[in-house]
Amino acid sequence: MTQSELTQLFQATFECQDSPSVYFAPGRVNLIGEHIDYNGGSVFPCALDFGTTALVSKRSDRSVYLYSYNFPEQGIISFRLDNMSKTGQESWGIYPKGVFKTFELHHKFIDQGLNILYYGTIPNGAGLSSSASIEVLTGYLLNDLFDLGINRVDLALLTQESENNYVGVNCGIMDQFIIANGKKNHAILLNTDSLDFDYVPFELHDYKLVITNTNVKRGLADSKYNERRQECEEALRILQKSYSIHTLADINLGELINHKAKFNSELIYRRAYHVVSECERTLNAVDALKNHNLKRMGELMNESHRSLRDDYQVSCAELDTLVELSWNYDGVLGSRMTGAGFGGCTISIVHQDALQNYQDYIRRAYTKSFGHEPTFYLANVGDGVYKV
Ligand code: GLA
41 in ligand 1 pocket by Cβ < 6 Å? Predict the structure, then answer.
């Protein structure tokens, strides 16, 4: 869809002649540091160059009308600024509506209604953060149109709060943070405890980052996600009896191993082992990338996958198959699942000369095993949310 086609759709949908303002928020992918953002360690995501576009104009009343090009069957979803409680009928509109409500709770008042049209190119349910993209986009456009004075870090925190409290998904800060703060051709090393962050040039030289979608919806993701969070809290409580630590990321692997006997449950120990080892891998991977040692970075990605598969147990047959096929393919430096798991996508570092054959090979082998095709995206690293 071009911008002028979107403007025509906007005017037809809302029956107006307004020239809307246009905003864009990316999707994201996490390079390494998985299931770490609720454990206080560092994560290493980047923003993508595809995402969600919003067209918006102010209304003269106090109603908000939302329409998504991607969900035409849902029609226009509307609410009034004076009553933003959840009705359960919001469908996808829960993401923007939650941001309006969360802003109100923080005395960031919106005093005029809006028409907003959304158009997204992030596949839903693929673990590339289509929902966080809508949330950050909505928060950003409200901040801009109503001069609310919210900086990008607070924008991430407020939209995360909306996802946690209004949508009801207990996610960490990573997705909203990278979508709010991403920078073209850079990944962000984000300390999820202090929210200190550094931009690291994302230079793969002769290699490309390939995102492969299993096209398996992340069915179990929400319930298992909350279960993992609780398991990590339990591991922390056990370790806090011996160490004065504030998060699982505060101990190193040697200290954890020394305390193995304190764990009654092997399972809880393995969860903690993933977290603590992944924290170390993330910092090592960032060093490897900074030193242009892509081979090392690839190895760390492979180790990350094994840890997520065996110790944290958030992978699935489709993800494991994609990753194992990639590990055995010449020209691939590393491959791992990315995001919450139980479906969604893998990322692989693939030599540019091998790209086409690699995709053909993976497509054939994967389809033979599962009866449906994977989808590939060649990832370019884009900017965080902006006004177009
Ligand atoms: C989801 C959550 C993030 C993060 C990842 C796992 O994407 O929204 O906060 O926890 O899973 O790394």
Answer: no
Q: What is the pTM of this model?
A: 0.96
pLDDT in tens, 196-233: 999 999 999 999 999 999 999 766 567 899 999 999 99
**Whether residue 191 has pLDDT greater than 70:** yes
Residues labelled as active-site residues: 175
What does the pLDDT look like over 89-147, one tens digit per residue? Answer: 999 999 999 999 999 999 999 999 999 999 999 998 889 999 999 999 999 999 999 99
Model confidence at 344, in pLDDT bands (50, 70, 90)? very high
Q: Any idea what the CATH number is for the domain that residue 98 is in?
A: 3.30.230.10
Domain of 81, in residue numbers: 3-200
Q: Mean of the pLDDT values across residues 294-311?
A: 98
Task: Answer yes or no: is 320 within a domain.
Answer: no
Ligand 1 atom showing the smallest separation from residue 35 Cα: 12
Please name the residue that has the structure tokens 């590939």.
376
Q: Ligand 1: does its nearest atom lie under 6 Å from the Cβ of 175?
A: yes
Q: Residue 127 CA: which ligand 1 atom is closest?
A: 7
Q: If you count DSSP H runs as helices and E runs as strands, how many of each does the chain have, helices first? A: 11, 13
- Number of domain units in the chain: 1
Give the model confidence (pLDDT) of 228-253 as tens digits. 999 999 999 999 999 999 999 999 99
What atom of ligand 1 comes closest to residue 38's alpha carbon?
A: 10
CB 34 near ligand 1, within 6 Å:
yes
DSSP 262-303: G-S-HHHHHHHHHHHHHHHHHHHHHHHHHTT-HHHHHHHHHH
> In this structure, which residue's CA is closest to atom 2 in ligand 1?
171
Residue 339 CB–ligand 1 contact under 6 Å = yes
- Is position 272 within any domain? no
274 CA from centroid of ligand 1 (Å) = 15
**Ligand 1 pocket, residue 172 CB under 6 Å:** yes
Q: Which ligand 1 atom is the nearest neighbour of the CA of 173? A: 9
Strand ranges for the chain from DSSP E? 21-30, 42-43, 45-58, 63-68, 77-80, 114-120, 186-191, 197-201, 207-213, 332-338, 345-351, 375-378, 386-387
Grouping H, G, I as helix, E, B as strand and the rest as coil, residue 261 is helix
- Separation of 173 CA from ligand 1 center, angstroms? 8
Residue 348 in any domain: the answer is: no
| Average per-residue pLDDT for the chain | 96
Residue 243 counted as domain residue: no
Q: What are phi and psi of 312, to 5 degrees?
A: -95, -20
